[in-house]
Amino acid sequence: MERAAPSPGLLQPGQREIELDVRTQDVEINMGPQHPSTHGVLRVLIRADGEIVTAAQSHLGYLHRCAEKIGENVDWLQYLPYTDRYDYLAAMNNNLGYSLAVEKLLGIEVPPRGQYLRTLIVELNRIASHLIAFGTYGLDIGAFTPFFYAFRERELLLDIFEKICGARLTYSFIRPGGVFNDAPPGWLQHVEDFCRQFEKKWPEYWDLLVENKIFIERTANVGIIPRDLAIAWGCTGPMLRGSGVDWDLRRDQPYLVYDRLEFKVITGVGYRGTVGDCFDRNYVRMLEMVESLKMVRQCLDQMPEGEVSHPDVGLIIRPAPGEAYVGIENPRGELGHYVVSDGSKIARRVRVRAPSFCNLSLVEHIMPGTMLADAVAIIGATDIVIGETDR
Amino acid sequence: MPALQRDTGWGPMQAYFEAARAAHAALSQAGFPVELHQPNLPVFAAEGEAKELAAAHKEGKHLWRGDAYVQLADRGRIVGLCRFLRDQLAYQQIIDVTAVDHAAEDKELWGMYAFLSLTTKLRLSVKTMIPKDDCRIDSIVPVYPGANWHERETAEFYGITYTGHPDPRHMLLPDDWVGNPLRKDYKFPEEYHGISCV
What we know:
The complex is a heterodimer of chains A (about 400) and B (about 200).
Chain A: E1 26-31, E2 43-49, E3 52-59, H1 67-71, H2 80-84, H3 91-106, H4 112-140, H5 145-165, E4 174-175, E5 178-179, H6 187-210, H7 213-219, H8 227-232, H9 238-242, H10 249-252, H11 278-302, E6 322-330, E7 333-341, E8 349-353, H12 355-366, H13 372-382, H14 386-390
Antiparallel strand pairs in A: 1-2, 2-3, 4-5, 6-7, 7-8
Helix pairs in contact in A: 3-4, 4-5, 4-11, 4-13, 5-6, 6-11, 11-13
Chain B: H1 11-29, E1 34-37, H2 49-58, E2 65-66, E3 69-72, H3 78-87, E4 93-100, E5 108-116, E6 123-131, E7 136-138, H4 147-158, E8 161-163, E9 191-192, E10 195-196
Parallel strand pairs in B: 3-6, 7-8
Antiparallel strand pairs in B: 1-3, 4-5, 5-6, 9-10
């Protein structure tokens, strides 16, 4: 006697339900350009099989403002405000990169006090930028609270910047030849107060986010970038150091007064997972804030008296014909300026090598095979600023 | 606090010269048609010297300042050169790929490549001429994957075709944008999809 086939849904005792032939359809998901986790107007086209990402493709250009073309049409000094607008979270660093490139063409060096002020303010800006990175990274993967703490501390830093140059986001403070003005009375004391305040708060952030169980589950062993991949793809900054590569332009090709300061280069060690995962990239940024704070303190201690700007640099700059490349360590990696001068008051070429641009190019290659929710964690850990990728 | 030395903080700039010299020697020994270009002005002029130089500049004397670089005479050998730099001279990272258009009447563009070595801590710039009427050069993506987006960007802004590029789409400009905006002879469009640009 033949047994009747079991009707679907009714299992015989001891029988396991095995779905051998479940077909899922590939879905194409448009992440962005208006998605909060893409940190601006980045559009990532994701093809997903169920919850697994099978392919990803970034589309850039929504914030393209022709910075390099503008550079060929305005004076050397007039271009400075445009540099603020590539990486608007670290505008001081952008000013510095451009100013160093122009100074190299001019063949001048800034007086010691100017150099110390530059180093001091650039490191403060790095803390502000890493605070945003840390706050918004928590936000991306579901922790809302750290964001408010990060912004509270950043507010103090913006007050410090406002006090010295009048602006809170786009400073144009560091300029070819030196800095815009000397620190106003009491400003250095203000910075010292901030240092005292910040060093008490920082351990709270560490406990709040980095040691948080949910955060570790979401980021450890996710989006692993092996060392060789990070090097081959031209990654720089925390993205490269997160993969365990011991490289920092401040130590290895020192500019300003970094060779007089003591600091450690933080690299990813696989603190909670594998070296080079999203957790490590965030870990590097967290500890870099402490190193920056150390450098700020040392700058305050060593701050010499004297002029802050080179006296020969006026409003019209005419560098000698030639070309120069200067790369500096931005919060996001190596910001390079390649400038070509023909001896006139307008540049012939201003090329900006943006760190986020290079770091982002790798992201679409590490995404396939990860879960869709991890795509957000990977983009967040890259810490991109779209103003910089699109320029 | 003692005054800063003139060369403080500019060690890497000196390293440029050494890097270019060493790379030039190694490359010419390997049979690459390369030339070494060194600026005839110091990177940092001493006090007083700067004023003399400025005066000479006003008289129209062509003085050149900046980084030393290596120029490759035959652009067809760029991929081989990159492979040599990566494997023999330990330049592991590509930092930048770009181009320069000096003037609208020029017949050639400069193709510019910047390399960085994480082990020897040196930087190297390599240049090669790309004629405007045959604006193509081999893609170096097979050697340095990091050049991918840089080449896409340079391609759309200068109209250079990187032969063998795996993904030759527009990078920052819209897909239907006409012209190469960073060429010196570029004419700004009057309208784009009905949006007036003037």
